[in-house]
Task: inverse folding
């Protein structure tokens, strides 16, 4: 592929808009996932008994399990959130940029 | 040329099965594990279907793109299932159920560690991988760097991961099949090796993908069925399940929270890093991103895969908890009927015993067949990744300097998969009596420390040069391997020394920063003209990574 076309894409202000928006969104989601996950790992390492707290008073089932399942569900929903924006909004801008560059 | 050989191989396999049927009862008695006719019939059916698919795929595999990347014609949903299939091994089903059975919540923590790499791959890697790659991940790392040098180290990294992972799978397969089907260990290993080579050699990525998809559906379906049947015995009430588990486990209430497994923060963080970024550096997983037509489908695949993996881990956790009560209180599943004694067949058996307890021999047979199918699919994916590293990276681009024709390249790939198959069988037999638990850890450690840092830097950091990539890969590879060898898992358990030289078993927290540091150091001190050119070439690569313009296979769709 020719460098010229890449250059043209690069100089399109929409390219910066796309990259800026998408990167911000992706990194925000990443930071949230890693933040929650490593907070969880730190609780496991430094204050494990906290997770032994029963869900229902007098019950045996601990909050650890729903917290774990909740994390799995939340992270998956976040990937869904990402593709919802990426596969419509971002891809539309993307298609426009590429179209503009090869015409 | 393919077809007569395929027929021959099918015939040989059928003969193998006849031999097996004759030989099996004796072995079965010796194992105290009755020969499992349901399992054998169902597994045989799986093999027939997958061989049929391989035959179909062989006819559709004409070009190198067909062979390595299924012609870029796999949809996002199909690829998502296939990725999940590649990622969920028999060790996931058996090992993690068993971990929850014995350790309670620690098992689920492990599941979460294995899971959390997926969102990361989605946000940071998926679309760039698709936009830059072609057949192997070295296509990306060598995009603007020296082809021969960077591909050589990438291939070494890939092959190290593939070989360790293969050995672990082969030994696991042999033990499991010996137990579940009543076959000789060596015969089981040979069957796995032969089928793996057939899928990969004749059907390439198309056959491998479909084997993965079928296996993923079977595993998800089988696991969910067992889980639902087991959970129904507690009225689908988690409190009842937990109360009875606590009452029936030796660990008691400790089941309900984190235990000793990850008590040490260094180990916990290191394991997390290794599993998370190791997932993002496994060559057979990375290859799957090149089978879809564009970035949109690549994202969709990760979405589907993330769901399957997360869902399955939760199923496995509930299976483990249920097994504590259903299996753990039934003397039938213990050696000599002694509840305080050992589980029949060993510590990895809670999932299988649970299937038998809730669904009889039919369900046990089904789950056994699924476990066997799972191993087959995983080794096929690994073999294809290994063969591609040899043919696409080493042969076509390093030895032939990009001058090999597609046909030559594919031919080398096929011979390589045959060689890998023979090697896997021989190593599988050689390691029969060895403790291979460390090998999967080592594979993830090398993937996280040797493959991942250079891959991510090549996509995100303009300043990476060839020298930096080489230094980083080698630093990651050497430190990860050394740490594992000097730790308890190898130095004490395998080599029989008294004290480990290195106190931690998980290498990632040490080896990943080393890899990044040396990649940085090697790059910033590289003032050569080549380095300047490589840095300049980042601009074009960056635009392609972001927009997919010029991406392989995009035009055809």
Result:
């Amino acid at each position: 592929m020719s460098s010229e076309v890449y250059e043209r894409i690069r100089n399109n202000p929409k390219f910066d808009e796309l990259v800026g928006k998408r990167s911000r969104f992706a990194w925000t989601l990443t930071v949230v996932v890693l933040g929650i996950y490593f907070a969880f790992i730190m609780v496991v390492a430094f204050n494990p008994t906290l997770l032994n707290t029963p869900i229902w008073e007098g019950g045996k089932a601990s909050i650890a399990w729903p917290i774990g399942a909740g994390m799995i569900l939340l992270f998956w929903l976040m990937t869904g959130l990402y593709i919802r924006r990426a596969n419509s909004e971002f891809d539309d801008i993307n298609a426009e940029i590429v179209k503009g560059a090869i015409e | 040329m393919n077809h007569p050989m395929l027929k021959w191989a099918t015939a040989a396999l059928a003969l193998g099965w006849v031999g097996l049927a004759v030989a099996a009862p004796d072995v079965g008695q010796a194992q105290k594990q009755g020969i499992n006719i349901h399992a054998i019939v169902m597994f045989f059916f799986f093999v027939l279907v997958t061989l049929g698919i391989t035959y179909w795929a062989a006819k559709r595999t004409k070009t190198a793109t067909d062979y390595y990347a299924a012609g870029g014609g796999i949809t996002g949903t199909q690829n998502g299932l296939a990725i999940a299939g590649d990622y969920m091994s028999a060790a996931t089903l058996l090992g993690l159920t068993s971990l929850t059975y014995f350790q309670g919540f620690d098992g689920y923590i492990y599941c979460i560690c294995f899971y959390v790499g997926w969102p990361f791959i989605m946000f940071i890697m998926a679309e760039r991988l698709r936009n830059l790659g072609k057949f192997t991940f070295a296509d990306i790392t060598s995009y603007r760097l020296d082809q021969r040098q960077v591909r050589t180290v990438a291939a070494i990294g890939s092959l190290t991961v593939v070989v360790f992972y293969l050995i672990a799978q082969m030994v696991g397969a042999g033990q499991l099949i010996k137990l579940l089907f009543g076959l000789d260990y060596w015969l089981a290993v040979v069957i796995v090796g032969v089928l793996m080579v057939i899928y990969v050699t004749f059907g390439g990525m198309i056959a491998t993908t479909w084997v993965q998809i079928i296996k993923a559906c079977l595993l998800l379906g089988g696991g969910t069925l067992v889980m639902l049947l087991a959970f129904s015995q507690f009225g689908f009430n988690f409190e009842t399940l937990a109360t009875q588990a606590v009452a029936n486990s030796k660990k008691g209430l400790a089941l309900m929270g984190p235990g000793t497994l990850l008590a040490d923060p260094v180990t916990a963080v290191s394991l997390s890093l290794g599993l998370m970024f190791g997932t993002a550096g496994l060559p057979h997983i990375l290859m799957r991103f090149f089978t879809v037509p564009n970035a949109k489908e690549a994202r969709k695949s990760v979405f589907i895969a993330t769901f399957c993996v997360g869902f399955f881990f939760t199923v496995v956790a509930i299976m483990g908890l249920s097994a504590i009560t259903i299996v753990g209180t039934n003397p039938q599943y213990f050696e000599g009927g002694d509840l305080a004694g050992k589980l029949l067949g060993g510590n990895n058996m809670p999932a299988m015993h649970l299937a038998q307890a809730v669904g009889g021999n039919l369900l046990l047979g089904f789950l056994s067949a699924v476990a066997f199918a799972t191993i087959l699919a995983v080794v096929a994916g690994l073999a294809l990744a290994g063969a591609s590293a040899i043919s696409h990276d080493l042969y076509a681009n390093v030895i032939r300097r990009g001058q090999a024709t597609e046909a030559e390249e594919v031919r080398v790939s096929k011979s390589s998969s045959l060689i890998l198959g023979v090697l896997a069988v021989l190593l599988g037999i050689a390691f029969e009596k060895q403790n291979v638990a460390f090998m999967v850890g080592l594979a993830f450690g090398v993937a996280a420390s040797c493959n991942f840092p250079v891959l991510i830097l090549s996509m995100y950091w303009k300043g990476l040069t060839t020298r930096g990539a080489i230094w980083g890969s080698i630093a990651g590879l050497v430190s990860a391997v050394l740490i594992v060898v000097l730790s308890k898992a190898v130095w004490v358990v395998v080599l029989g020394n008294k004290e480990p030289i290195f106190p931690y078993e998980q290498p990632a927290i040490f080896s990943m920063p080393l890899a990044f540091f040396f990649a940085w150091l090697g790059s910033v001190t590289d003032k050569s003209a080549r380095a300047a050119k490589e840095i300049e070439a980042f601009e074009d690569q960056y635009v392609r990574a972001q927009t997919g313009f010029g991406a392989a296979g995009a035009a055809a769709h």
